[in-house]
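lol ok so funny story. i was supposed to be doing the assay writeup but got distracted and ended up predicting the structure for this chain instead. priorities right. anyway since i did it might as well share w the group, maybe its usefull for someone
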Amino acid sequence: MKYFVKTPGWLQWLYPNCIWQMPTNAKTIYLSFDDGPHPEATPFVLDQLKIFNAKATFFCIGKNVVNYSTVYKQILAAGHAVGNHTHNHLNGWKTNEYDYYKNVEVAKCYIASNLFRPPYGKATKRQLKVLSASPYGITPVMWTVLSGDFDTSITAENCLQNVIRYTNNGTIVVFHDSAKALDKLKYALPKMLSYFSERGYSFDKIAVSSKNE
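and the output, tada:
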């Protein structure tokens, strides 16, 4: 499985309209969790975040919000941010434009957010341009660091070290609140939160102005 643990500058340059890192000099980290809500993984994440007084952003799949609406409400009740991750976890590179926009629109019926993260990080420039404009008016949010918790070829310790090695001020980190990632998540997330908290970092949710404002 090939992917960048830390997003290279040239890729950020190719997609300048996406948020890759938050513009801050403060010791603040922006944790994000993709693919939920999930009945076991998401409550675990919420419990860990609460221990460290941390806020985060959950990029939710629409159908999972429908299936686990109580868990979704728990995310909101805890004061975290949410974002649109399509309704069926679609790969934009393999989906025609009409179906892709429609799928995002369906998810938007259940996820009240102007934030959007394409599943796998795979969306064309045109797709992102259209979604950023009216009537969608959403902001594409990518990431600075991938934990790799979805990667079955690495250990949970590798996952933790990926994050520790590359995370600093303003970094957007991706974990997954999913069944596939749960074992690595249970190991890496508490240790990551502890490691950075001990070094004076705080954890905040992603917030941007709506394109329609």
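The first helix runs from residue 9 to 14. The beta strands are 28-34, 57-60, 81-84, 115-116, 139-140, 145-146, 172-176, 202-203.
back to the writeup now i swear
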